[in-house]
Design brief:
Number of helices: 0
Largest sheet: 4 strands, antiparallel
Number of strands: 14
Strand content: over 45%
Shape: globular
Structural class: mainly beta
């Protein structure tokens, strides 16, 4: 759309054509190009896992590159296909590209939040690192830039109740703050930065009985 009102018809996203269960695409635009990361089923012998794939398109191009597997470069013990990698969030800051995502061992029901720097074509270049506690089930990471620092928000169940957490990257470490009490279920947080520079978070919360 050139005006936000009139849109072309939907069409198949060619890089995902023929792939198994391709969904949850995330788009980011930077340096006159577009990059999409999405998840799809990866079948290794008899095991099926979700993995992340990247595809890119230049500003003057009408075609996307072939989708390439990017989560085979995550540092781990065992095979990369022993883990589900899902629900990516992307951030471009200071000429660098970053990704956060959910990562789960196939034998577990609990996800953790991982973070990595990506190359400009979407490949993981630093092996990735764990940023949630590793306890409970951590979900839906969202990366964002606030006051020129890398920030992230997600929710997890390390306290036994779904709780919202906010992290700010400080060098090699993350400063983490719980945004909700952990007494009632809170999930699906989203950050909003207002024009006056204030940061707000909105989330879904179960009412106390």
């Amino acid at each position: 759309s050139s005006d936000g009102l009139t849109w072309t018809d939907f069409e198949t996203f060619i890089p995902s054509y023929g792939m198994n269960n391709a969904f949850v695409p995330t788009l980011i635009s930077f340096e006159n190009k577009d990059l999409v990361v999405f998840q799809s089923s990866f079948i290794n012998e008899t095991r099926r896992s979700y993995q992340l794939y990247a595809t890119e398109k230049g500003a003057n191009s009408t075609t996307w590159s072939a989708a390439s597997l990017i989560t085979d470069d995550v540092i781990s013990s065992g095979k990369f296909s022993d883990y589900h990698n899902q629900r990516a969030s992307l951030l471009y800051k200071d000429n660098k590209l970053y990704m956060a995502w959910e990562r789960t061992h196939v034998s577990s029901e609990n996800s953790s939040i991982y973070f990595a720097e990506l190359s400009k074509n979407g490949n993981i270049i630093d092996g990735g690192s764990l940023i949630s506690s590793g306890n409970g089930n951590a979900s839906l990471p969202i990366l964002f830039n606030y006051e020129n620092k890398i920030n992230i928000v997600w929710f997890d169940t390390r306290k036994g109740v779904s709780t919202i957490y906010h992290g700010e990257k400080n060098g090699l470490f993350w400063n983490e703050t719980a945004l909700t009490s952990g007494k009632t279920e809170a999930s699906f947080a989203y950050p909003i930065k207002t024009k006056d520079g204030f940061l707000h978070f909105f989330w879904q919360q179960t009412q106390s009985s």
